[in-house]
From TrEMBL:
Residues 48-80 are annotated as: Disordered. It comes from Drosophila rhopaloa. PANTHER family: PTHR48051, RAS SUPPRESSOR PROTEIN 1. Pfam families: LRR_1, LRR_8. PROSITE patterns: LRR (PS51450). This is Leucine-rich repeat-containing protein 40. Keywords: Leucine-rich repeat, Repeat. SMART domains: LRR_BAC, LRR_TYP.
């Protein structure tokens, strides 16, 4: 029996009791009406004291652990306040199979049975719910319903349900996939990226309808051999894993069109890779590939090759056999020289920065007529050839951080060159302040020097001159005249050989009809009158309405587009940028073959309604205008639109429903006055912008 000698003892005892009560409350204790946690499964402290006293002598103790001045807690019978059977579970714990199974709710189950698609991404799954593997089987509930029930709710009948064809298990913590995956015979898309998989079951090879398999961002070092027997597989992504080689059996995937093996530790490519004749994209960045197999050039369908950040020292000499190649990425390798690329006429982008290249092959310049981007920064280049002027469609040339001392004046003949990067070179022929003014000022200086040199060499008054055997007419890359063509226009041979009518930097205000008639007779399908003084489309252009596929009229003074533009039934590319346009004719909407439209740097305050009628449009460049609002309903009517550039306009609000346009894969909105999304989100790219917008759609 405890006796308190003084008030301090009483105070200390009260404090100690309060501590015990608080500890009791943490493990399931009850609370009195004043919020005190003074009750445990033993009852209250006074009851415990009474029981203790009676146990020792049968008499009730006159002292208590609670001071007499304290208010007595409300008495609650023990039978009505038992201690809760609560087991402590930390926030981060190992998932049980029951928890994983509960993720596949009945609502998700029914939705998957109706649509054929099941999305279980980002559910923290440690195991695939066992029930999932039986989703294609008719369940007992649907079989047991009677005819009357089916009449009321026929969509739930088992014969109206769709087999699962799209399964997304990405962004979980899966370490393995059950062999029961073979039960999902109807799968065409299997997404397993961002998990912790160390191996895949061989039974995946039995999914004979599988067309897309994504196992990126896992811990795989090899694939089961059975996967290489999948007859319909077209898309394979094994990036961000631990692969050291690509299995030679990959050549058995005859239908494969896309292969991404980036960010691994791959050192060699199998010799049989050339049998992948349908492959259009080969992505192997951030590996340790030292040499390309000779049969790589047999993959004649390749359009994109990404070998950035590898250990390559050279390229196959017969790269020209890849006649459909459009983009080649070779940054950060050990390449010493470039091939001539003879035969790669469709190549539009060549990125070869951070290598050890010393020269630019002269033949390469004449073999790449459609090259738009040439990136050779951070190499060992000492001089630029005059033949660079043969790259007539070049938009961007980056030769910064080399050892170039002289810029050829022929660069000024590149009418489409909008970005020339030369910083980090010991250039002495042009003052530093001019170099710092940018591309336009540099080209103007080269232009003036070219004209001066032409006069010194006895060139004509039209500015024609010849450097290194290259004829340049008025800085446009044209040819000498013949008897049929007016002055300063390319001759018949040039038209027949290039199928291109290009006249740039001539300050033309009109074009004779005779020019278009001759171009039509020679089968020309590309017309380029950029950087002139045209106020509208030349009337003679109508002669070529059934031939023209590309029409470039940028950097003119065009204020309106005539209605006859609707007669161009084969046009796929139209560039009207840097003009004075504020609207387009309503007939413009019938150009169903148009794939890319550029109306940048004009005076548009809105995107014309006729643009929304272009069902085949894939790329819309409308930057540098005065567009004030986004017409999302109009954009929704363009099913193929994938690139939308609206930089530097006057848009003050971005509707959240824009995020639902999943067909848009490249969106540019920088330089507008809206507050949301913030600039930091815009800098993260299209995926971040669209996700941000979708999260703000009212529910």
């Amino acid at each position: 029996m405890m006796n308190f000698k003084n008030p301090e003892d009483v105070e200390f005892s009260s404090f100690q009791g309060a501590q015990e009560c608080n500890q009791a409350s943490a493990f399931g204790g009850d609370f009195d009406s004043f919020g005190h946690s003074c009750f445990t499964h033993y009852g209250c402290p006074s009851e415990m004291s009474d029981r203790t006293g009676r146990g020792r002598g049968g008499a009730t103790s006159s002292t208590s652990r609670i001071p007499r001045c304290a208010q007595s807690p409300r008495q609650i019978p023990v039978a009505h306040s038992p201690r809760s059977n609560y087991s402590f579970r930390p926030l981060f714990h190992e998932r049980s199979s029951q928890e994983d199974d509960s993720v596949l709710t009945q609502q998700l189950w029914k939705l998957a049975r109706k649509s054929g698609t099941l999305n279980l991404s980002n559910k923290a799954l440690a195991r695939v719910p066992e029930r999932l593997y039986d989703i294609n089987e008719a369940d007992t509930e649907s079989k047991a319903v009677n005819l009357e029930q089916l009449t009321i709710k026929e969509e739930d009948a088992w014969w109206n349900q769709v087999p699962l064809n799209n399964l997304d298990l990405s962004s979980n913590t899966l370490t393995h996939i059950s062999p029961k995956i073979e039960n999902l015979q109807s799968l065409t898309v299997l997404t397993l990226h961002d998990n912790a998989l160390v191996k895949l079951p061989p039974e995946i090879g039995k999914l004979e309808k599988l067309m897309r398999l994504n196992v990126s961002h896992n811990k795989l070092s090899q694939l089961p051999r059975e996967i290489y027997s999948l007859p319909e597989l077209r898309h394979l992504n094994i990036s961000y894993n631990g692969f050291t080689e690509i299995d030679p059996d990959i050549s058995d995937l005859h239908m494969l069109e896309f292969l991404d093996g980036g960010h691994n530790n791959i050192q060699t490519l199998p010799g049989g890779i050339g049998f992948l004749v349908r492959l259009t994209a080969l992505l192997l960045p951030y590996n340790h590939v030292k040499e390309l197999p000779p049969d790589l050039v047999n993959m004649r369908s390749l359009q994109k090759i990404d070998l950035m950040q590898n250990d390559l020292t050279c390229l196959p000499e017969d790269m020209g056999l890849l006649r459909k190649l459009e983009c080649l990425y070779l940054q950060h390798n050990d390449i010493l020289e470039l091939p001539d690329f003879e035969g790669n006429e469709t190549l539009s982008e060549l990125h070869a920065s951070n290598n050890f290249i010393k020269t630019i092959p002269k033949a390469m310049c004449s073999n790449l007529p459609h090259l738009k981007i040439l990136d050779l920064r951070d190499n060992k280049i000492t001089e630029l050839p005059d033949e660079l002027c043969l790259l007539r469609n070049l938009n961007r040339l980056d030769v910064s951080n080399n050892t170039i001392s002289v810029l050829p004046v022929t660069l000024s003949s590149l009418a489409h060159l909008i970005s020339l990067q030369v910083e980090g070179n010991p250039i002495k022929m042009i003052r530093r302040d001019i170099l710092q003014c940018g591309t336009t000022r540099i080209l103007k200086t080269l232009h003036e020097r070219a004209l001066a040199k032409s006069k010194e060499e006895g060139g004509g008054s039209d500015g024609a001159f010849s450097l290194g055997g290259i004829s340049v007419t008025r800085l446009r890359g044209g040819q000498a005249d013949d008897g049929d063509m007016p002055g300063n226009f390319p001759d018949r041979y040039k038209l027949r050989h290039t199928r291109t009518l290009a006249v740039n930097l001539e300050e033309l205000t009109e074009v004779p009809d005779q020019v278009f008639q001759i171009a039509k007779n020679e089968g020309v399908h590309v017309v380029d009158f950029a950087r002139n003084q045209l106020s509208t489309l030349p009337n003679g252009l109508q002669h070529m309405r059934n031939l023209v596929t590309e029409l470039v009229l940028s950097n003119n003074l065009i204020g309106y587009v005539p209605q006859f533009i609707s007669q161009f039934t084969r046009i796929t590319y139209l560039n009207l940028s840097n003009n004075l346009l504020s609207d387009l004719p309503k007939e413009f909407g019938v150009l169903n073959t148009l794939r890319e439209l550029s109306i940048a740097n004009n005076r548009f305050q809105f995107i014309p309604n006729c643009v929304y009628e272009l069902q085949g449009l894939e790329i819309l460049i409308a930057s540098e205008n005065h567009i004030k609002m986004l017409n999302v309903s109009g954009l929704q009517s363009m099913p193929r639109l994938s690139t939308l550039d609206l930089r530097n306009n006057d848009i003050d609000a971005v509707p959240p429903i824009l995020g639902n346009l999943t067909n848009i894969t490249h969106l540019e909105l920088v330089g507008n006055p809206f507050r949301q999304p913030r600039h930091q989100i815009l800098m993260k790219g299209t995926d971040a912008i669209m996700s941000y917008l979708r999260d703000r759609i009212p529910t």
